[in-house]
Amino acid sequence: MILDFLEKLHEKRTGGEVWQLLLTQLNEFGFDRALYGYTRFRTPQSFGHREDILILSNHSDEYMKQFIDGGMYFDAPMVNWALDNVGARSWSMVQNNPEALSDRQREIVAFNKSMGIKAGYSISFKDISSRTKGAIGLVAKPEMTQQDVDDLWLDQGRTITQICNVAHLKMSNLPYASLHRTLTSRQREVLEWVGDGKTTQDIATIMGLTAATIEKHSRLARAALGVETTAQAVLKASYYNQIFVLSE
Fold first, then answer.
1. How far apart are the first and last CA of the chain?
2. Domain of 73?
3. Helix H or strand E segment including 57
4. d(CA 38, CA 47)
């Protein structure tokens, strides 16, 4: 089963395809919902701009509107745990220590329960730099208790953790962007040439365009990526894996 998963994973070319494959595999273990988050723009005070965080989920729109758009995730107990830890952790950590939670955290736990989210496990992935953080929350099927999940983890936890690890590594190396962080093919090409050290006039000659048109594409790329300089745009586009990538 795991070899089949890895072979299929190797063939996936988009983050969406990887995510759907992972969800199918997790469902076989008893987790019917999951929430994955990954940022390359973490600071000591925040995860970076919301539009720069890759978030994938099969939770309901109602849940996502409250938990993500409403900012609950930033104070959620298991999200807080994931920020400072690496590995897998049972949600019993929260259930068995309610006195250690703040009023805000208890409010979030109650909201999760009201949405049928009562048992699960979280995995925090190993960081590659101080600016990155990736984690996934696995929600058990409604009929499962936290004890059921903990028993399952004793038997299958290592396998589930490694499946999530390799899926995370795959997704973090594929192009991704939110609605407001997508580059056109022209913008990508201009940034690629800038990354290669070419001047505006060099790029205009190479692409058969005017220098004014190259400047326009650079300006639009900066606006799309939410940065002020073209050098920052090249860096951010590389973080998004949107430049120097192979096309189908």
1. 28
2. 2-171
3. strand 54-57
4. 9
